[in-house]
């Protein structure tokens, strides 16, 4: 089972340790995060991110082979609740903070255009 | 790149190319509450009436896993002959799309709960084993209404309206391994798989698996390779195919379309395609060439699941008889040929006949009434057999009246007519319409004597030993009693009186 745990959920975008974060990687992350970064900012953040990742990566120096990566701080499993219906919000409450609503639904801007 | 080459006729495409299929099926579980919160899951509720801070992704809310949903997926995994893993986690699938208010979907990534199973399906008497790669747990998304476009589609829409009632409903995803060597039966194998999967899940009672309501949805992967090639072609994924018939048509169309592209020297683009129910064709959706980057990571708000072996075995012990085993049993018990069994299954009559048998009727008559009289009426009315306003118990009661001799088949048909017309149960219809086999021996004897007197020529033939001529006399008795005589008894009396018995 340890293999399954070790497989983890490493995101493809995350850099492996040791190699410096590139401007391209920052640009990719920025696009995924819907952040508009300027050319100068790409280099700026690349250096910063590199420092952060390097700092965090030091944990690997103490992690031995037989210690699986930890995703949860609590050593517990199987927290379940019974299948029981509980009251929902009233639609007015649910929609109260929505920037826009129409026909008792959340109104959102055009979806395609950036993804198509 | 992709101009639009013409379709290659199916047989021709299959002569040159070999299809490889894959099916991803999403099934909404029929739990009372959602996957990670206590909101109700009722289908068709007014928009945004079944939402709460958890399924709306409001700050500070935390998900808690619904035990019944986990039991449901484990049952599905077991029924699909999967291994249930001993330890796994949920994962966040991050994407920007308003159908999930959290901006991520809680799903499973590289640690699915159930792995390595199979489902056997039959096409034209041949069995195909469809290997199951994985079965994992996730949550359904909200429903969008696209406004401002010409066709209600997302393309060309001005804005969208989102209802989050569906967001957070437990969703099970079942992924096959590549399905190979199906040849020209590929579309039928895909359909048979979807059909069998639906039957299986329905038998488990964990979902209503209504494709028309979206509680079961199929995505179909198809690729073609030249016959004899070792390497598979590039696949396309056709999304949200929402009926069994569409599963078959979507595969067929993709084979014809891709063959056209390849014949013209083009290449297949790995992409999502949309199936159009009206034309049976697919069109390109967003391209997957720029790989989606979902940045999966272990869900920090939910602790890992480690289903104990005891729990898994407890669940295994609750599995009902599964459809394939049930079909084999019923076929043996009822003495059906393969073809007869297939007709019963295709007519959706298996449950109905079995319930009729349980209510006391013999299998033969039970099948006869459902497959003939009632199937015909269902077809006439354009409804499913099970939607007819008559119960298996009522059918069994009518047959019981036949068995005890108070109805014959002809009268029984009138009783069916009455029950279907809402005149009440079988006994009420019999009473109200005065349908009863004439069983008063004296009355019947008098009618027989009269008929013999009226049909001297036929009577003489019977006296002379031509027993077959008695048929005309029996017919005359039935006519005289407006079908209410016991034909067998009438025949006995006739032969007795004419000295031919």
From TrEMBL, chain A:
Where composition is biased (Low complexity), the residues are: 1-20
UniProt feature coiled coil, ranges:
none
Q: Name one GO biological process term.
A: regulation of translational fidelity
Q: Which reaction is this enzyme known to catalyze?
A: L-glutamyl-tRNA(Gln) + L-glutamine + ATP + H2O = L-glutaminyl-tRNA(Gln) + L-glutamate + ADP + phosphate + H(+); L-aspartyl-tRNA(Asn) + L-glutamine + ATP + H2O = L-asparaginyl-tRNA(Asn) + L-glutamate + ADP + phosphate + 2 H(+)
InterPro entries in the record: Asp/Glu-ADT_sf_sub_c, GatC
Work out whether the entry's keyword set contains NADP: no
User: Could you tell me the EC number(s) of this protein?
Assistant: 6.3.5.-
Highest taxon above the source species:
Bacteria
Q: What is a single molecular function from GO for this protein?
A: asparaginyl-tRNA synthase (glutamine-hydrolyzing) activity
| Keywords of this entry | ATP-binding, Ligase, Nucleotide-binding, Protein biosynthesis, Transferase
Q: Where is this region: Disordered?
A: 1-21
Q: What function does this protein fulfil? A: Allows the formation of correctly charged Asn-tRNA(Asn) or Gln-tRNA(Gln) through the transamidation of misacylated Asp-tRNA(Asn) or Glu-tRNA(Gln) in organisms which lack either or both of asparaginyl-tRNA or glutaminyl-tRNA synthetases. The reaction takes place in the presence of glutamine and ATP through an activated phospho-Asp-tRNA(Asn) or phospho-Glu-tRNA(Gln).
- SUBUNIT field: Heterotrimer of A, B and C subunits.
Name the family: Belongs to the GatC family.
Q: Which PANTHER family match?
A: GLUTAMYL-TRNA(GLN) AMIDOTRANSFERASE SUBUNIT C, MITOCHONDRIAL
Q: What is this protein called?
A: Aspartyl/glutamyl-tRNA(Asn/Gln) amidotransferase subunit C
GN (gene name): gatC
UniProtKB/TrEMBL annotation, chain B:
Query: Which reaction(s) are listed as its catalytic activity?
Result: L-aspartyl-tRNA(Asn) + L-glutamine + ATP + H2O = L-asparaginyl-tRNA(Asn) + L-glutamate + ADP + phosphate + 2 H(+); L-glutamyl-tRNA(Gln) + L-glutamine + ATP + H2O = L-glutaminyl-tRNA(Gln) + L-glutamate + ADP + phosphate + H(+)
Q: What is this protein called?
A: Aspartyl/glutamyl-tRNA(Asn/Gln) amidotransferase subunit B
Q: State the source organism's domain of life.
A: Bacteria
Q: PANTHER family, from UniProt? A: GLUTAMYL-TRNA GLN AMIDOTRANSFERASE SUBUNIT B MITOCHONDRIAL AND PROKARYOTIC PET112-RELATED, GLUTAMYL-TRNA(GLN) AMIDOTRANSFERASE SUBUNIT B, MITOCHONDRIAL
What molecular functions are annotated in GO for this chain?
A: asparaginyl-tRNA synthase (glutamine-hydrolyzing) activity; ATP binding; glutaminyl-tRNA synthase (glutamine-hydrolyzing) activity; transferase activity
* Sorted UniProt keywords: ATP-binding, Ligase, Nucleotide-binding, Protein biosynthesis, Transferase
| EC number(s) per entry | 6.3.5.-
User: Asn/Gln amidotransferase domain spans which residues?
Assistant: 351-498
What binding partners and quaternary form does the record give?
Answer: Heterotrimer of A, B and C subunits.
What is the purpose of this protein?
A: Allows the formation of correctly charged Asn-tRNA(Asn) or Gln-tRNA(Gln) through the transamidation of misacylated Asp-tRNA(Asn) or Glu-tRNA(Gln) in organisms which lack either or both of asparaginyl-tRNA or glutaminyl-tRNA synthetases. The reaction takes place in the presence of glutamine and ATP through an activated phospho-Asp-tRNA(Asn) or phospho-Glu-tRNA(Gln).
Q: Which organism is it from?
A: Thermomonospora echinospora
Q: What class of enzyme is it?
A: ligase
The UniProt similarity line reads: Belongs to the GatB/GatE family. GatB subfamily.
State the Gene Ontology BP annotations.
glutaminyl-tRNAGln biosynthesis via transamidation; translation
Q: Where is the signal peptide?
A: none
């Amino acid at each position: 089972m340890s293999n399954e745990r070790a497989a983890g959920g490493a995101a493809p975008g995350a850099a492996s340790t040791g190699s410096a974060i590139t401007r391209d990687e920052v640009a990719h992350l920025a696009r995924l995060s819907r952040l508009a970064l300027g050319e100068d900012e790409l280099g700026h953040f690349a250096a910063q991110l590199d420092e952060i990742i390097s700092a965090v990566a030091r944990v690997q120096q103490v992690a031995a082979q037989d210690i699986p990566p930890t995703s949860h701080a609590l050593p517990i499993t199987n927290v379940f609740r019974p299948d029981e219906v509980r009251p929902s919000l009233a639609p007015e409450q649910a929609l109260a903070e929505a920037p826009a609503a129409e026909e008792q639904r959340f109104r959102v801007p055009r979806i395609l255009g950036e993804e198509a | 790149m992709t101009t639009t080459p013409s379709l290659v006729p199916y047989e021709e495409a299959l002569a040159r190319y070999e299809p490889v299929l894959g099916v991803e099926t999403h099934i909404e579980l029929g739990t009372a509450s959602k996957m990670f919160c206590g909101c109700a899951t009722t289908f068709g509720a007014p928009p945004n009436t079944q939402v709460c801070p958890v399924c709306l992704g409001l700050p500070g809310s935390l998900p808690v896993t619904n035990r019944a949903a986990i039991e449901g997926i484990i049952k599905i995994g077991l029924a699909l002959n999967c291994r249930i893993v001993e330890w796994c986690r949920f994962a966040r699938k991050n994407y920007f799309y308003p159908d999930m208010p959290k901006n991520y979907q809680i799903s499973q990534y590289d640690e699915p709960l159930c792995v390595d199973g199979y489902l056997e399906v039959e096409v034209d008497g041949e069995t195909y084993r469809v290997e199951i790669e994985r079965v994992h747990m996730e949550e359904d998304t909200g429903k969008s209404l696209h406004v401002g476009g010409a066709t209600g589609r997302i393309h060309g829409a001005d804005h969208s309206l989102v209802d989050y009632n569906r967001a957070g409903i437990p969703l099970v995803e079942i992924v096959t391994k590549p399905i190979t060597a199906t040849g020209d039966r590929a579309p039928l194998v895909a359909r048979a798989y979807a059909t069998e999967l639906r039957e299986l899940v329905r038998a488990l009672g964990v979902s209503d698996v209504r494709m028309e309501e979206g509680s079961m949805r199929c995505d179909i992967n198809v690729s073609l390779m030249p016959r004899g090639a070792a390497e598979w072609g590039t696949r396309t994924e056709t999304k949200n195919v929402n009926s069994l018939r569409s599963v078959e048509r979507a595969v067929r169309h993709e084979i014809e379309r891709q063959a056209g592209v390849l014949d013209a020297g083009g290449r297949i683009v790995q992409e999502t395609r949309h199936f159009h129910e009206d034309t049976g064709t697919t069109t390109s959706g967003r391209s997957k060439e720029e790989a989606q980057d979902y940045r999966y990571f272990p869900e920090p708000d939910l602790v890992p699941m480690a289903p104990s072996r005891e729990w898994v075995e407890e669940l295994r012990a609750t599995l009902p008889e599964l459809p394939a085993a049930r079909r084999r049993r019923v076929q043996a018990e009822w003495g059906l040929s393969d073809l007869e069994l297939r007709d019963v299954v295709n007519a959706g009559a298996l449950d109905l006949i079995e319930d009729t048998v349980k209510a006391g009727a013999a299998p033969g008559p039970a099948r006869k009434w459902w497959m003939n009289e009632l199937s015909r009426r269902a077809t006439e009315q354009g409804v499913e057999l099970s939607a007819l306003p008559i119960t298996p118990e009522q059918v069994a009661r009518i047959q019981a009246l036949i068995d005890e001799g108070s109805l014959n088949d002809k009268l029984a048909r009138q009783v069916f007519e009455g029950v279907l017309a809402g005149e009440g149960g079988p006994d009420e219809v019999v009473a109200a319409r005065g349908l009863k086999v004439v069983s008063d021996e004296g009355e019947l004897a008098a009618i027989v004597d009269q008929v013999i007197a009226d049909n001297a020529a036929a009577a003489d033939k019977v006296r002379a030993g031509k027993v077959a001529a008695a048929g005309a006399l029996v017919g005359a008795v039935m006519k005289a009693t407006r079908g209410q005589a016991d034909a067998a008894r009438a025949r006995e009396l006739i032969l007795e009186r004419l000295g031919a018995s």
